[in-house]
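Hi R.,

As promised, here are both runs. First protein below:
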Amino acid sequence: MEQESKWIRDIQRGGSRQAAERLVERYYDEIYIFVYRQTGHKEDAMDLTQSIFLAVLRALPSYDPKKAAFRTWLYRIAANKVIDARRQSRPVTTPLEEIELPVQEDFVSQIHDRELLERIEGYVSGLSPSLQAVFRLRLYGERSFGEIAAALGQSESAVKSQYYRLLGRIREEFDPHE
């Protein structure tokens, strides 16, 4: 943490290339996984992760550690970039040779699960950017409600309320047993 603060100061003061490289190395895999879980495509996740770090390094001179922890600030930028990319996204096709067919007996249920997840993701994509961010940071980013609240500039109770209300709406919309 102390080393991270030093890298940030070095970048803010003189644009230290070495400090920037270390900071990116420190968080690259974590942000890539966060993005990949939302895009489901390796190339898109790599491109978007690169775009996120370019935005972070450009904005770093204005970063204020008194307002938010660096990690929180980073995830706010990442979540916003993912939302922007979804708004601009084109339909994605996956080549047949990239699709792995499971050999398990519950293949049909897995197909239905994948279809359900795609339908839920489509539903969430139609919601406000704030609700999308809450849902995706919690589900894909595996962030705590406190971290999400800090990243979005909201209270923790508001974030919890939005998340659980959204889960209720999703249940009503997609659960055939309700």
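And here is the second one, sequence first, then its structure tokens:
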Amino acid sequence: MATSVHLDLTPKILDILRFDTMLDAQGRPAGPTPASAKEWVVRDKGVRGLLLRLTPRTITWYVQRKVAGAPMRRAMGHWWSADEGYRRLSLTEARKRAKIWLGLMEQGIDPLVEKKKRQRAAQSERERDGLTLKVAFDDYVEARARKAKASTTADRKKVPKWMTGAPLWVMPVHDIDEAAVEATLGPLLRAVADGTKRPAWGPKSLSGGTVAKLFAYCSAAYARASPKVGLPSGRGVGPFAAWRADQRWPQPVRRETYLATASDAGQSWLKQLVDLRAQAHDPDILRQRPDPRSREVKPHASVLLDFFLCVLLWGSRKEETARLKWDDVDLERNLIVFPASVTKSGKAGVVPLTPWAKEVLVERRTANSAWRPDDEACWVFPSRQRGKPLNNPRSVLLALQKHTGLWITAHDLRRTLATELGQVQVSVESLGRLLIVGAALNHSRGATGATPSNATSGYIQEQAEVLRPSYQARENKLRSLVGLPALSKRAAAQVSASESIDLAALLHRLETDGVAAQQVLEALLRRRATTS
């Protein structure tokens, strides 16, 4: 019995097809399939080259013809399978597909290879469509988090909330063009620059700085994702760069406020800070632990007040101070080292620990132990959440504003120190020592950048000692303003008018004239070499 039969296939014939029963030329059962047969074939008269291959477990559609002189047979799909989950290919669909596949084979093209190409292209398109700016941004933040500071990562994580509802946010990266960037960032920029109505998306506190930050983070995420979808990347390349080049960006308004300690209002604010701190350090508050819902002073208030007093005394940044650890406090050498891992510059910083600041830290350690005797936290200024550093100390600033009418921020206190020290007359010798120490610190850090190396520690000590007289004199002045006696008589050495210089003026000259700064530094280094 032949194992191949030619039929004009119909749905009725397909319904009676079984491997174990062969058909005759009229499509009628012709008897059992020979035991030796492993398969048999039904060839369709309707489409030459279309056939059904029957095995004990499947009935499968195939196309067959010669390609480059050799027979080629390719499976298109199942009519039936003993395994569940298959999709049945009907007679109509099989004939339609067979004509396409046979046409490809006539051109010498393998239809399965072509099918895989289309599948890959479709998959690639789905992946491209799935790689929206939102997805790209999440990947960007995760990838950069390993090397970024915690504060930078926290800043980047604000962007998804800002961009909710923005047209650009859900757009595939490969579809983003200059017009799309304009549709999202343009309204935000014009709201800042021209005062037009702001869109529904964007930072709650809208400014030139926040729009610039949004642009920088989104463009960085786009640049990182663009090679994944075959787009060019690089500095100045892409729709974000093209859009930015044509924009009139508002100039940032520099905040110049500081605590004017010479004014009545400034002294009132300072006195209120000291008075509130004294109240917060009352031992009864730590022992009785008032109800958190009450309006009474809470144990954590002393942390906040100590924090702002130290920022005022040191001129340190809020983030650097909040993440200060006890390991960074050297009570023997009377200095504070801010590790490179927390500083904005990425370099270790140092401030001298003057008597009042030292007194604050000693009291802080005692208060921390009394507040949480079972918690050996490493943070000098702990959060109310166990094991974490201080995060949002704003409540004390609001309380001080309520009492004094002055709104002073942590950065205002930093500017206060810079302003007051800039008015100090410093000897040429002291300035030279400070510049030399600063130059050494630019390259002398420990291998990890977190703590000073042995070689660096000497420079750090020298820098602290150069700064100490000025810091001490300022501390004594602040204490006198609030009616407290000086804790140390040691202050900045007085120098004659012929030997003194205006530090603020000189520093301004050195900052604006790079050549002059280099010449001064080289001269000081030569002088030091000849005298050592």
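A quick note on the second one: The chain has three domains: 4-126, 133-245, 264-531. Let me know what you think.

Best,
J.
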